[in-house]
Amino acid sequence: MLKKRRFSSACPPKTQFVASRWFFAVILFIFLTELARTVALPSHFQRDIHMSKLYSRRLASPLLLTLLLVLQAPASHADSASTAAPASVTGASEEVALAARIDSEIAPLFKANEPGATVIVTQAGLTVFRKAYGMADVAKGLPMTPDTVMRIASISKQFTATGILMLADEGKLALGDDIRKFLPDYPSGGKRITIEHLLTHTSGIANFTNKPAFEAGMNTDLTVGQMIDSFKNDALQFEPGTRYSYSNSGYFLLGAIIEKVSGLSYAKFVEQRIFVPLGMLDSAYEGHERGSAMRARGYTRSSAGSAFEPGKAVSMTLPYAAGALVSTVDDLARWDAAVSAGTLLKPSSQQKAFTAHVLADGKSVPYGYGWSVRKMRGMPMQSHGGGIPGFSTYALRLPEKQLYVAVLTNADRGLPGAEMIAVKAATIAVGNGFPE
Asked: Average pLDDT, whole number, for the chain?
């Protein structure tokens, strides 16, 4: 039963009751009118407005909670008041409770005066959790905010892979093309290396970040050509298409192919073809930012393990198309909404991106095109993690639940793992929805 409460007012009780009933009626009419307008929209139009109203639930939840407080007051004076809250208000309460459960698990993992994280959870394109923890800049005492910009590291590969697939959808290249069609000077040792091999990490090209001399020179600016020259003569690790071995080199080459085919720099391509159309104002190839949102400073745990210190310097000309993008959890949610809506690619291309690649011997690998393809407690999951000096990241999507989680942290060592946090948040959000 709703507990009866006293009104502190100079009006007589009967006047209070009548005024309350009229106020209740007006509020309920406005609410139901807006609800009817939403329900009445054609399904294809609803999908389109999900993109422009990605955060409507985040904005609506406080309104619904306000309505809950307003609706309870007049109902408490009506003898025939229902003992159950309206379904929409109940939903809002459940959403607040869900956010509280997620926060209760994540908040204890971070300290207010140390590097932290931003986390977002969306379901069906609507935000159910969005929060920041810790410091964006420890020395300046700047706290992290949900819209803080950070390096997303290898989550960048999703954008590179999508760029390649967009060009393929336009007939400007084919995934089965030999890479020498676009990079004629690349030595392949007599082997046929295709664009698909690069997308799926099955090319056999060694990962340049694993080279012994990489760390010593990682703060040196290099052109795309100079960077390719630094690894192109390394021996192939295996016959292309026969094994899976994660390779940043492959995605670096994909960036060079995008430039060759599109006639744009990689930075301009992702800006003009992806970020601007999707309204991702705070996403960019680092050094080519358009927005003015606060940037987080990157950290690492000191060797002594007692404190955090600034992360090692790295030139973003090196990770390039394999990991040089910056973004926010808000923009990443916009990105996933576009992916889910099929905004950028043909359905067949998007499906291939989410399908485990099959090797020459018929065995599959846990990677599609720019997304890791695995399962989370029996449920299909597409995801990607990233690590770069000063930052660690992870994003996952559970398509069957229309769930997306992105976690960005501004430390490459010494904080709880971004993947662990993302999985924890997803598990709480799905609740009992996982198959046994």
From this structure: 83
What token pair was written down for 347? 């359905």
Task: Give the contacts of 186 (CB within 8 A, at least 6 positions apart).
Answer: 179, 180, 228, 232, 253
Give me Rg for the CA atoms of the chain.
25
Which sign, positive or negative, has the C-alpha torsion 251, 253, 257, 259? positive
Q: List C-alpha distances in Å: 259 to 167, 252, 287, 354, 385.
A: 11, 11, 17, 24, 25
Identify residue 129 by its one-letter amino acid code: F
- H or E stretch including 352? helix 347-353
Tokens at residue 226, please? 């100079």
Element holding 162 (H helix, E strand): helix 156-169
Helix (H, G, I), strand (E, B) or coil at 128: strand
| Max intra-chain CA distance, the chain | 94
Neighbouring CB atoms inside 10 A of 387's CB total 19
Grade residue 95 by pLDDT with cuts at 50, 70 and 90.
Answer: confident
Angle between helices 248-262 and 156-169 (to 10 degrees): 40
| CB-based contact 406:119 (threshold 8 Å) | yes
- pLDDT per position as a tens digit, 246-301: 999 999 999 999 999 999 999 999 999 999 999 999 999 999 999 999 999 999 99
Burial of residue 375 (number of CB atoms within 10 Å: 0-12, 13-18, 19+): exposed
| Per-residue tokens: 292 | 């003015």
CB 380 within 8 A of CB 397: no
Q: Global pTM? A: 0.79
Q: How far apart are CA 26 and CA 58, in angstroms?
A: 24
